[in-house]
Write a structure and sequence with these properties.
The protein is an alpha+beta fold. It has helices at 3-9, 51-68, 113-129, 148-161, 164-169, 171-179, 182-192, 233-244, 262-276, 282-285, 288-309, 321-339, and strands at 17-20, 28-33, 37-42, 87-88, 94-99, 104-105, 199-201, 210-213, 219-222, 229-231.
Length: 340
Amino acid sequence: MSAEEVVREFGVEGSVKISPLGSGHIHRTYKVEAARQFVLQRVNKTIFTQPDVIASNNRLAFQYLKQHHPDFIFPQALPDLNGNDLFYDDEGFPWRLYPLIENTFTIDEVSTEQEAYEAAKGFAALSKNLYGIDTQLLKPTLDRFHDLSWRYKQFENALQKASPETIQMAKAEIEQAQSFQPLVSEYTQLIKEGVLQLRVMHNDTKVNNILFDSISRKAVCAIDLDTLMPGYFIYDLGDMVRTFVSPVTEEEKDISKIEFRKNIYNALVQGYLSQMGDVLTEQEMKFIPFAGKMMTYIMGLRFLADYLRGNTYYHITYPEQNRVRAKNQFHLLSLIEKNV
């Protein structure tokens, strides 16, 4: 089914122009130019096996915000001709349509303190304004997504089943992964003792999931709300630390280019606390430094486990890519440990 046929199912009439949009790797996203402008997206049903849960979570959040914070911008899918948030095509793929938020832009990497501050403020504002919603109403869209103890078990299982040749190739990265294992114990203890409160989190806080205003360059709203679900503040704050503080991405092969930019770290923490500072408990505030360590470790473990399994999850363009990604993340983790 073509993208143009799909937009008709949402009641878009007249001439339309449809073109690819954004740099995401999970879904297929298009800009729709008609009498109004829209964003059309085909959801990846392989990764998100329960797209109706995504739609339900987003609808509940939208309704709560409309009642309690009516001026807060929250992208909500438009209904199709049958009143559904998702339209399923003849191949079983779910599609959704959003109004285009005009005069906004996204960035793929953080270059300035202002960008770090504004992006962190934007993600934090989402959680702050949803504070008060019954978290039991929202369901996980990806089970145990940021559960460090489970991710470590996945790594151990992958290691047990890996071939001797693969283990030998990844010997250094395996040793690094094992050396950071105390972080798993710390995470498990935090959850067991109830130190962290369960709140609604974005759970995928890369900077390209924030829309910035084209003129003021301030954060307008968070987008890509597939992982909007209950979680802990360390998930959102930690992934910002992981993806903001280094001038290079997890794809960088030359680890000498990986840095910890203290000014960017300070800016993002300040931006986050400008919204969540009054929401977090005193106990939670003590674990701000833990957030970046935990989330960077998770990604290192996930990349390494995928390499040991034979690269079955993450898309790769060369055989050693997941091992390189893991090495990159473990090096960044060591820098975070030294600097926070």
